[in-house]
Amino acid sequence: MLIRPIDYFLVVWFALAAASTAYVAWDQYRNNPEPAVMKWGFILVTLYMGPLGVLLYVLADKEPSPGEHETFIQALWKQGVGSTIHCVAGDATGIILAAAITATLGLPMWIDLIVEYATGFAFGLFIFQSLFMKSMMGGTYWQNVRRSFLPEFISMNFMMAGMAPTMTFLMMGRDMRAMEPTELLFWGVMSLGVIVGFSTAYPSNVWMVKNGLKHGLMTERKFGTRFDVRHEHQAGGHPEGGHGMKSGATPAQLAAVAGVSLFALAVGMIAPANWVNLRLSARDVGGAIMPPGMTMDRDIPAEAMIDMAAVNPRDVTNDFGLDVRGNRELAPHMDAGVKVFDLDTAVIRWTILRGVTVDAYAFNGQIPGPRLHFRQGDRIRINVRNHLPENTTVHWHGLILPNIMDGPAHITQEPIPRDGGLYRYEFTAVQSGTYLYHSHDHIDRQQALGLYGAMIIDPAAPDPSLEADHEYDVLLQEWLLREGLTFPAMPMDGAQPNYFTINGRAYPATDRIPIKVGETLKVRFIGSSNGFIHPMHIHGGPFQVVAIDGNTLPSTSRYQADTVNVAPGQRYDVIWTARQPGKWLIHCHIAHHTTNNNVETNGGGGLMVVIDVT
User: Cα–Cα distance between 159 and 282 in angstroms, integer?
Assistant: First the structure.
């Protein structure tokens, strides 16, 4: 599944890389007179660098016309390309294989870099240089190992000096799918790393070719083959090999270049630790995608990244439009005198506004979760089955109940396991009033993504002073939707919300409450959000506050107001009288909270509901 725009680009990039590699492979073996090691070098480099590999091949190595290869490749810059191809083809192959294996094993990034360097260097030295180049270099295999060690060391150091920070910053950046070999982005980072590594290794390879330390491009015209045009004495090679070399570099020059390459390597490998947490592994962060603007530093732990990460769209099990409402009353079934409610958690796609959807965690496929309505004195059982990609629990906010039923993860209970785990909560309702339930496992993530709902408990003895002609619940929530991904909104850098909802909808998709002049409306303000205080205001005259946090106020303590500050977890029951006809607003008095992504639509957005009085 393609999640972000970069994924679509990578599909095109790798399609071009495949086509480019096929062309280079075909043309090398059909039309280009050079040793097999160079043919394979260009094939591998084109596989890693895509169209840039074709560009290098055509500009530096492809024989323009039969019999002209030796003359065509003489330029020093082209010989430097050939020398770098030797390095990249071997070293990058080892680095990429090591990166895939270490990520799969879950090794931390700093170990990953060391293993990548060692594997790349060994692959380049022992296989691609000393073994595959043996016929060109002459001598025994171990003589070639000794002869190739210093040039390979210099070239590999400069290459890894470019690749290491490129891979580190991109893999440990916002989109850490780049750490997972099963993700296309991982291979995209590898490709870019090879391109950068080729660029940083190229200057040193030009110098080494010029001073006879490394081979560049070569021509091979074996007698009797289609490339045999008998140019045995042209520049660039001999028909049967024998590419002998003699170094023109002084010991001081070699020491200086090797020392600088080692310093560049150290900087490339170590410097990123100042900005990213190299102690983390692919297994720690699980392909998390961070919100734009989040502060990422060397001390941020994996747990914080996972909590703040976007919902994975691949986990979505259902898609709901504006025709499906949240906060629908859930009918219980009876079991030996116990009222039983069934709650199932899952990842859904929920429409908050026409054309705007969020990937959310939900109870019973709705946001807010279903309203649980029962009576004081009832025996209640709630079966919670977890279909999220992570553990969860549920807390029954404000209720007096046995401690084992309270819900905090790892404190009163072990979390409900992912992928179908079940927990049964059971208690007797000894209170009455307005309450809420919500997740209490990684609450800043799960409640922010939709795991909350209302509980309405009727008093055992009805109280006429608390009754009204109409009732309406207002469950508040904030959302962070960026670049097509949903992140848990939090009051911190990079996680500030840009959408706000009442009962899972943002104005103008919120409800309209029909009422007649003289009738009363009981509004239950429920602080189901978990990061922000919302001063909730009703137009058209003051209301009477009759209950706070589920507790009914004595008649002498009730008061008139037109705004109440609804903090996370807090509840207010207010009764408002329709005094005049018209459209009267219920809204948050923080202006930004009545916008949708900073934009007003039809007079507002976000936390707004219209009371339509006739």
Answer: 23
